[in-house]
Amino acid sequence: MLLLASCQPKEKAIVYGQDECIHCRMMIVENQYGTELVTKKGKVYTFDSIECLIDYLRTDNIDENEVALSLVTAFNQPNKLRAVKDSYYLHSIKLPSPMGMFLTAFESKAAAEEAKAKYGGEVMDWELLLKKYDSFK
User: Fold this and answer.
1) Residue 115 and which of 57, 101, 103, 129 are 20 to 30 A apart at CA?
2) What 3-state DSSP class applies to 129?
3) For residue 129, is pLDDT > 70?
4) CB 88 within 8 A of CB 112
5) Which pTM does this prediction carry?
């Protein structure tokens, strides 16, 4: 019973200023941009940006069937992880992300639209972001 509980996939709080991005190897310091991937076996991978998470998923470093959770931090809710599919994304050159692709997550479409009114750019859900991702490079 204990063995089963220890392998349950669950998020782990990112330790900003200490944890390292598994993809680019930079220290994760901006608490509005940290992201995380958790496998079905419970292994946790941390990233310093949305773009590092997407690049990691695309490089075949991990089988998508093994992913239990993909999580982002909403810009206006620092340190709080949430599901990528439940979040909205703003691509705005006035809001730089750690790896320079100008991608920022928000907890709702309304919050993303409010940020768009302030910073400009384009609001997307996860599926649209994945489709348009290569055009942001």
Assistant:
1) 57
2) helix
3) yes
4) yes
5) 0.91
